[in-house]
Design a protein that fits this description.
3 strands, about 100 residues, alpha+beta, about 10% strand
């Protein structure tokens, strides 16, 4: 019987990977285009918007996170909905609350 050649796995060498360039970090929200952000978001979308986990956002809603202002939400049965404007306002409030809690060194 003729043996067929086994396929060889070629690993790319480090020289084959192009040099990485520095990444520019934007200070605005990654989805800053207001048309692409929905006006009303569910829990998963809101967590992605504020860049935290869904469980952490639930803890904030239930008042389990100390030092963080309360967050306005609408509950419809099990659904929790957030207005984009309320999330943006909450982020500003949380930012000012965290800066007030810091003590100068």
């Amino acid at each position: 019987m003729l043996k067929s050649p086994t396929p060889s796995v070629v690993k790319p060498s480090r020289s084959a990977i192009p040099n990485s360039r520095p990444v520019l970090v934007s200070t605005t929200h990654p989805e800053s285009n207001s048309e692409s952000i929905p006006r009303v978001m569910n829990l998963a979308e809101a967590a992605r918007f504020v860049r935290c986990s869904r469980s952490h956002l639930c803890n904030v809603l239930n008042g389990k996170v100390r030092g963080v202002p309360s967050l306005a939400a609408v509950r419809i049965g099990r659904r929790v909905l957030f207005r984009r404007e309320a999330l943006e306002k909450w982020l500003l409030e949380a930012e000012t609350a965290s800066s007030e809690n810091r003590t100068p060194s």
